[in-house]
Q: What sequence folds into this?
């Protein structure tokens, strides 16, 4: 199995574990110095670091949305990256507002683990609207 095929298998396993709600098992797929970049305009936006960061973002994401689903449409590999094109949907736990949109997730891999992840939402403003969240940007 090539390195790219191994990387692809790790990302597929991540989606399987997350869909099953097995966040603790997911942490084994990430490096100790992992970093996740979520858009700042989201209710859970920011940077999350390490395996603790994986648990933190999972808890924030899951507590924000009463329902959610991720449908992976396409995975592509190149070098140390795996790119995922997916349809992400959710409904907010308090407002009941729902949304659905395409996202791109860029996984950077090293030695068979995920070291960095950057998520690109098609319309992050709609996600914030559903959560009745007004982003606070620096002055």
A:
């Amino acid at each position: 199995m090539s390195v790219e095929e191994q990387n692809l298998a790790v990302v597929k396993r991540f989606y399987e574990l997350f869909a099953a709600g097995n966040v603790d098992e997911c942490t084994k797929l990430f490096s100790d110095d992992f970093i996740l970049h979520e858009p700042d305009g989201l209710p859970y936006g920011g940077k999350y670091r390490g395996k603790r960061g994986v648990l933190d973002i999972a808890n924030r994401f899951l507590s924000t949305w009463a329902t959610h689903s991720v449908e992976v449409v396409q995975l592509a590999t190149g070098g140390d990256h795996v790119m995922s094109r997916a349809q992400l949907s959710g409904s907010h736990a308090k407002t009941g507002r729902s949304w659905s949109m395409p996202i791109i997730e860029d996984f950077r891999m090293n030695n068979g683990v995920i070291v960095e992840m950057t998520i690109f939402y098609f319309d992050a403003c709609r996600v914030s609207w559903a959560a009745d969240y007004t982003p606070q940007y620096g002055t």
The mean pLDDT is 93. The first helix runs from residue 3 to 19. The two ends are 50 Å apart (CA to CA). The longest strand covers residues 65-78.
